[in-house]
Design goal:
The protein is α/β, with parallel strands linked by helices and 455 residues long. Helices cover 33% and strands 25% of the residues. The chain is built from 15 helices and 22 strands. It is globular. The chain starts with a strand and ends with a helix.
Amino acid sequence: MRIIIEGAGQVGSHLAKMLSQDGGDITVIDDDVQRLNALSSTADVVTLAGDLSSIELLKSAGCDKADLFIAVNPFKSQSVNILSAQLAKRLGARQAIARIDDEQYLTNENKLMFKDMGIDLLLYPEKIASDEVVDMLKHTASTDSMDFASGKLRLSVFKLDDDSPLMDLNVAEFSAVFAQDNIGEGMRVVAIARDGKTLIPKFDTRFKYNDLVYIIASKEGMTGIMRFLGVDDIRIRRVMILGGSEIGQMTADRLAKTGLDSLKIIEVNKSKARQLSVDLPDEVDVVEGDIRNSDFLVEEGIQEYDAVVAVAGNDETNILACVVAKRFGVPRVVAQVENLEYVRLAEEMGVDTVINKKLITASRIYRFTLSDKVRFVRYMSGTDAEVMEYTVSDKSRITRDSLKNLDFPADAIIGGVIRGAEAFIAVGDTRIEPFDRVAVFAKPSAIKEVDKFFK
């Protein structure tokens, strides 16, 4: 697949590295030679420097033969991304994606207008990250979760403490417990993240301390899992946001509409704090202060909050602020961490949920590199794997036999199936039918092979 990426920033560079590992023909254009040199030293890509809206540069990059053009430069006005995506499409690129920084462009009416202009997808990474934060505060029993079919199936991630009832059980024994309660078919363990690696578990795989366990379940099954694990969704009524970044502002603005008892945002920059107090709804208490100062946080009552969301511009600051919040008894802490090397460190230090803007944005874009049968792709925290939902056609290879006879990739697993109004967990004897929607959990090495089963 021929892909051109405009912009060698964090999102563009991560995409280039990820897609080049899939064997794609990747070209990256940017107006900064240093960024391009840094990328080319770590990824097998072609780089071109020049004016990002130059027709000659776009022609030289091969837009006439490109399957996908991705304009994600964060250092220029969004108009540059929009213009270069439009030009690339006119020059022959089959699909075009543009990064934006204006939420009004994402209304249904405006998205249709941009579609008519040739842009297939608009991406606002900061809004995507903010949406993730708000959604995670609704499902606090797990470190991450996602719904299929309006909640008929849910994939949730649980971190195992040393007193977890799963300790020393294996997958088969865990399943047997649920079979006794007559809801054994209502759940399936689809993955375990351990020591930075993702495992697709077998029946004899034994759970260990600090594992992140990925479980897909029916609505009834998830209730039983939470009861068995002794966890409940925390009722979030008081939220403190650390950092007045774009993500912080959008999160505060959305949460202000939910009727919280208390919502506070802390920003170290005096002029920015003043502007936030003007721009944000009256329900948001804006405070100027340094979130690195634990004494200041105590004075602001951090110990009285149900959730702390750290989204300042520095990873270390966000992680340490969350550690302080945990020390003072805050039940739920969320940190924005952009350095991939720090993600695991943050989880080990007790951060409940890590938000990585470039990973979740890359997942949205990755869908365009797969067959048209994939409905969405989503990154989940704590793993390098992806969660995908496919719509099955009558010609899909996945329909030819029961799952146990199909030689499905070992590094992937089908977790659940949505058939009409019915949703159920997939097992070895399950036979996928045309028009089913199928939830798949797959490691990067297996994604392309999985995709072939649904074409």
